[in-house]
Amino acid sequence: MPELPEVETIVTDLQRILPGMIFKGLEWEHENTVKGALCGEVGLKKKRVTAIKRRGKFINVFFEGEYVMTIHLRMSGRLIFSGLDDEKLRFERTRIDFDKGSLRFCDIRKFGRVWINKLENYEQVTGIKNLGIEPLQKDFTHERFIKIFARKKGNVKRLLLDQSLIAGIGNIYADEACFYSGIRPDCMIEKLSRKKLEELFEGVVKALKQGVKNRGTSISDFVDAYGKNGKNQELLYVYGRGGKPCLNCKTTLQRTVVAGRGTVMCPSCQK
DNA sequence: CGTCGCTCCTGGATGC
DNA sequence: TGCATCCAGGAGCGAC
């Protein structure tokens, strides 16, 4: 599923593709997919793309005239740049046409969303304003991390997945970060020492940076804006490996449910 | 306000 | 082989 590294990969691709292109039109088949199009699409006509930026797992495409198109891929969304005359892709639900090509939003489960808003209120409307800190920015430090979790209680996994605390972590990278730091995803965060919290911080950063470096994890649905797979699935220690031997100690990896999510951990390496 | 459980979805895996 | 059932899960929402 698309998490921070996958979204970052797509945004990096789109930054090479879209700037300067002129918006032509938007078509969608599922009524819940597009929000705010009534006012937005009219305003967007003939506007040029000025920038593309990621915030958490959201993709923001900025246009002239102070419009922003926000896209969230949720579970199974793909965003693939194609020719205007290319045939419809499998599970293509929405197409965003520009003068020099067409961005196809393919989404098996139809959970993905597109919003069109004026710059002044897009953060409010999309929920972006509720997001926590960006974990790959310089201000994400040990100190900030410990401060964020200082008065929080509950299992580590639920808190890592809470987008209002840290923006962009999903199921894959939460499990990998816990493995890197030697912490069980179901352990209570209030019981962790300062040293273990620092290791968890390092684990989060390491997992996300590695994901970005390898252009995302293509386990089920993810491809980049050119339709190509990432490479990070070859480097996962726990996610998707339940029942297989731990790559560190050969203990059989345990699959459980934590915070309502499928969770894999090494009972020997993670305490 | 924090937390929980439910909901949205459907292809692929599994079971009989 | 074929049909029915289960499962995956990000995030928003209502309930408490």
Please describe what this structure looks like.
This protein has 271 residues and is α+β, with helices and mostly antiparallel strands. Helix content is 27%, strand content 23%. It contains 7 helices and 11 strands. It has helices at 4-17, 37-44, 122-126, 142-149, 156-161, 171-181, 194-213; strands at 23-28, 34-35, 49-55, 58-63, 67-72, 77-82, 92-98, 101-107, 113-118, 254-258, 261-265. Strands 2-9-5-4-3 form a 5-stranded mixed β-sheet. A 4-stranded antiparallel β-sheet has the order 1-7-8-6, with helices on one face. A two-stranded antiparallel ribbon has the order 10-11. It is globular, with a radius of gyration of 19 Å. It binds a DNA duplex (16 and 16 nucleotides) through residues 1-3, 32, 57, 72-76, 91, 107-111, 113, 127, 154, 158, 161, 163, 170-171, 220, 260-262.
Keywords:
five-stranded mixed β-sheet; globular; four-stranded antiparallel β-sheet; alpha+beta; 271 residues; DNA-binding
Can you tell me the overall shape? globular
Strand order of the largest sheet: 2-9-5-4-3
The termini sit apart by 27 Å
**What share of residues is helical?**
25-40%
Please tally the helical runs, counting DSSP H or I stretches of 4 or more residues.
7
Given the helix and strand composition, which structural class is it?
A: alpha+beta
Biggest sheet features: 5 strands, mixed
Query: Low-confidence spans: pLDDT under 50, at least 5 residues?
Result: none
